[in-house]
Amino acid sequence: MSTGKVEQWIAGPGEGMIKDEKGQRLAFSQSDLQNPAERGNLRQGDKVQFEVDQPGHATGVKKA
């Protein structure tokens, strides 16, 4: 499991970006959240854990 920080989260459409520890940016959406209830609680700068399912995309996102 990888870790990083929420770089951007737009709650309306439920889309955002994570910057991992290597500086890479990964896209994710509300359907990639491990717990959909966290959608309203995500903020820029939150530390998160996630899996990379394809280049540039994170899934299984949860607060660390």
Could you explain the architecture of this structure?
This protein is mainly β and 64 residues long. Helices cover 0% and strands 55% of the residues. The protein is built from no helices and five strands. Strands 3-2-1-4-5 form a five-stranded antiparallel sheet, with no helix packed on it. Strand 2 and strand 3 form a beta hairpin. The chain is globular.
- Estimated helix fraction: under 10%
Profile the largest sheet: 5 strands, antiparallel
Structural class: mainly beta
Contiguous helical run count: 0
Layout of strands and helices, then pairs:
Blueprint lengths: L1 E9 L4 E6 L4 E5 L17 E8 L2 E7 L1
Antiparallel strand pairs: 1-2, 1-4, 2-3, 4-5
What are the salient characteristics of this protein?
64 residues; mainly beta; globular; 55% strand; five-stranded antiparallel β-sheet
Summarize the structure.
The chain starts with a strand and ends with a strand.
